[in-house]
């Protein structure tokens, strides 16, 4: 069990402690009735403190309780001295050490003890690179875009919107595995098919099945269950009634004897919330039976009480997937089902398949490499570099935006893949490569006797870390990383959240966008001395600062590697 001294710092723990310190007098004193009179909701009462994140505000404070909040807690907004004293002496598991607090024109501002925070994080970095808690459970991630209609999809028939759902599904799986879940994917795809090989090119290890594999027996079993279930509409019940759902399910692939299921009754009797009220009645088609059979097979070994199914689908196909979820429920499944809805992918002025998109980005990456390195760009190593950079570009373009929002891509052939944008894959992989160069240079310096080994963090004076960018890196990126890893599981476990779930998959990627080489400049070329990090000759009086900065950048490198692991991106091969 973690002790107060070893418990890693958490923003959430610190905000809770600050909230309690601020509200305790108000709740116990004469203002308690006014503070809790119902003028503000419970959610609003929780928003007493705000963590700062901008460089401008972090120069003066790390947390702020605005004057509007203080006015609701205390007469005339006057904070009692006892409250200020209590804030200055805050202690507790995960609570950041407070260096000072004062009431200003903006409100009550609190500053963290930077030196103690650097020491606590950099001397125990492993705790900040893993989820705060390991969970148990089984998650099946279903990707409707990959379910066969007449035949499995091909890279040429796969739309960019469908590709986005697959990448998000793969990313969610990696995040949930990090948190302890057992994760499986559905459907299985024919081994060595074009679509399997295409996904492998993008670093996606999707489950494969034998080309001769068939699920017809299970399809027939599910059909029989639906034919005899209580939700089936008989001819006399149906009459002339029609529904949106029925219309969407008509077409090719129908069966000789129609089976219509009243999905509205399923929703109402099982008390499922968040589904489209117009689901109505739908006709069960062969395509739907194939889909249900795949799901049923994928989940058969899961403990029912621990099983959750995530349907990762596009907004255009949400209605159809809701139908499938309700049909599966009517067929007897009791697994919890949630929908991860993905916004569309737009390519103004151009229609492009997933295969064409990958080819375009690879060609642009090769052109950019040849422009910079000329004739050096040849051989297997460069092929591997271009492949990794292309995968990084594709993943960041389609995953860096909130998954419910649309993504707009520039797919003009004459365009150049940007290396400047802080949210781009090239930018992040470039940062990783530069950090590798920095530590390789330092290790060579140690071998040559130019620098000593980095001592243990407990032997260093972290007051040497005074640069604005250094605190930004720690406070905005390193400390919150573990808490962000927890967010997807917390959203998944939220009860009463309805059919949809927002897993905030873009959050982890946002932590890789730190503009390292702006706030903490490195030299433009690996052949130059390493600027403020490594000195060109032994200067013992600067070693402490150099060691502190190296520990900080080592922590950033580990954060990058952990984040990129969730994208199945390998490091850039070294030339």
From TrEMBL:
<dbReference type="GO" id="GO:0005524">
    <property type="term" value="F:ATP binding"/>
</dbReference>
<feature type="region of interest" description="Disordered">
    <location>
        <begin position="234"/>
        <end position="254"/>
    </location>
</feature>
<dbReference type="GO" id="GO:0006420">
    <property type="term" value="P:arginyl-tRNA aminoacylation"/>
</dbReference>
<dbReference type="GO" id="GO:0106217">
    <property type="term" value="P:tRNA C3-cytosine methylation"/>
</dbReference>
<dbReference type="GO" id="GO:0004814">
    <property type="term" value="F:arginine-tRNA ligase activity"/>
</dbReference>
<dbReference type="InterPro" id="IPR008909">
    <property type="entry name" value="DALR_anticod-bd"/>
</dbReference>
<dbReference type="GO" id="GO:0000049">
    <property type="term" value="F:tRNA binding"/>
</dbReference>
<feature type="domain" description="DALR anticodon binding">
    <location>
        <begin position="428"/>
        <end position="575"/>
    </location>
</feature>
<dbReference type="InterPro" id="IPR037380">
    <property type="entry name" value="DALRD3"/>
</dbReference>
<protein>
    <recommendedName>
        <fullName>DALR anticodon binding domain-containing protein</fullName>
    </recommendedName>
</protein>
